[in-house]
Write a structure and sequence with these properties.
The chain is α/β, with parallel strands linked by helices. It has nine helices and 13 strands. The chain has helices at about 5-15, 35-45, 75-85, 100-105, 115-125, 145-150, 190-195, 270-285, 300-315, and strands at about 20, 30-35, 55-60, 90-95, 110, 130, 160, 170-175, 180-185, 225-230, 245, 260, 290. A nine-stranded mixed sheet has the order 7-1-2-6-3-5-4-8-9, with helices on both faces. A four-stranded parallel sheet has the order 10-13-11-12. The model has no long low-confidence stretch (mean pLDDT about 95). The chain binds threonylcarbamoyladenylate and magnesium ion.
């Protein structure tokens, strides 16, 4: 149970220009007043995040984005009506009100209304839009529990503990082009779901710049010990007796020191919800490395494999 007085405290701290970790339905965020460049600068500092990586601005009501954007496009309202509150971030042309530090100097801003009572109530009470990246050190595992935030970010002013997050992986990020929408980061809201609301998924024809979502960096979300994907970057001769297996099918589990099956029924939603939490657990378990069995790459499986490959990237063969 989250205490009302803790939500009030978090909101008050945000009003005062402090940085607060708070729960959303996806992962914990590290939030500050999006309209206060000095407060936002502290987020970058605490996270050790490069200044070229822009932040998502969180709002408590759909209409709150009107003052933050500079675009007339009915697709925006179709998407917000359908998916908000929820794990969808829209990258849209920004208004003058949004400070450059939030968007890393880009002319667009990422916006999202989280589907979490505690987050919504904190944002509403703070009276301002809240800029927040995931509450982890840059490049490391994302936090789905308050304890994960504590582990990585000792300097944070306050952690609002709302228990484990429900969705477990970050929001789907899209941007709009004349011809259709472009997925910048995969999440639990899939291309098929989006295409039922607005036409249609396209690949950007524009030159890619540093505007990319970290979803697009090759390495991200990494545990502190090596992680390999079976059949992909797994070195040939490795003794698995001191390794942990992150199993999907429950097969070929012999020989590992530790085996974790996230969803015995093979449910990808459950897998996504538990993925980061399990990786945090394995990271702390005194094993030499983790081997992850690939999951089917469809629906939410696309986002899951995306996270696993990025986690494994720096531990290539
Ligand atoms: O579920 C989520 O999205 C979580 C919760 C806390 O809301 N937040 C999150 O934030 O994952 P973060 O900062 O870890 O990842 C958001 C990414 C940024 O790294 C950035 O690359 C991309 O969103 N992004 C933000 N604004 C952008 C923009 N204007 N253009 C392109 N990408 C943008
Ligand atoms: Mg992140």
């Amino acid at each position: 149970m989250v205490l009302q007085k803790d939500i009030e405290k978090a909101a008050e701290m945000i009003r005062q220009g402090k940085v607060v970790a708070f729960p959303t339905e996806t992962v914990y965020g590290l939030g500050a007043n999006a309209l206060d460049p000095v407060a936002v600068a502290r987020i970058f500092e605490l996270k050790e995040r490069p200044s070229f990586d822009p932040l998502i601005v969180h709002v408590a009501q759909k209409t709150d984005i009107s003052q933050l954007i500079n675009i007339q496009d009915e697709r925006v309202w179709k998407l917000t009506d359908h998916f908000w509150p929820g794990p969808l971030t829209l990258v849209l042309p920004k208004s003058e009100l949004v400070p450059g530090i939030v968007t890393s100097g880009l002319k667009t801003v990422g916006l999202r209304m989280p589907d979490h009572e505690v987050a919504l109530s904190m944002i509403k009470m703070s009276g301002c839009p809240v800029a927040a990246p995931s509450a982890n050190k840059f490049g490391q595992l994302s936090p789905t529990k308050a304890a994960h935030v504590r582990k990585q970010l000792q300097g944070v002013d306050f952690i609002l503990d709302g228990g484990p997050t429900r969705v477990g992986i970050e929001s789907t990020i899209i941007t709009l082009h004349d011809e259709g929408f472009e997925i910048l980061r995969h999440g639990v809201i899939t291309q098929r779901q989006l295409e039922k609301v607005v036409p249609c998924a396209v690949q950007s024809t524009h030159q890619k710049t540093h505007t990319l979502a970290p979803g697009m960096l090759k390495s991200h979300y990494s545990p502190a010990i090596p992680i390999y994907i079976a059949g992909e970057n797994m070195p040939k001769i490795r003794d698995i007796s001191q390794a942990a297996l992150l199993s999907y099918s429950g097969e070929n589990t012999q020989g590992y020191k530790y085996v974790k099956i996230i969803s015995p029924k093979g449910d990808l939603k459950t897998y996504a919800a538990e993925l980061f939490s399990v990786l945090h657990e394995l990271e702390d378990m005194n094993v030499d490395f983790i081997v992850a069995e690939p999951v089917p790459e469809k629906g939410i499986g696309i986002a899951i494999m995306d996270k696993l490959r990025k986690a494994a990237y720096r531990y290539a063969k």
